[in-house]
Write a structure and sequence with these properties.
By secondary structure, the chain is an all-alpha fold. Helices cover about 60% and strands about 0% of the residues. The chain has two helices and no strands.
């Protein structure tokens, strides 16, 4: 049985993109933050289905 890690995208965003030790989180634009929020909403809906 092949299992998929459904939270892989979110895990990656949090550990890499939103980690102040690994990226310049203070340079995140409102467009980028809104894109992350939109993707998180999409992923949430996908997982719930």
């Amino acid at each position: 049985m092949n299992q998929t890690y459904l939270l892989e995208w979110l895990d990656s965003v949090v550990t890499l993109n939103l980690n102040p030790k690994k990226s310049a989180i203070s340079n995140l634009t409102s467009f980028e933050s809104q894109a992350i929020i939109n993707k998180a909403v999409q992923q949430t809906q996908f997982i719930q289905k």
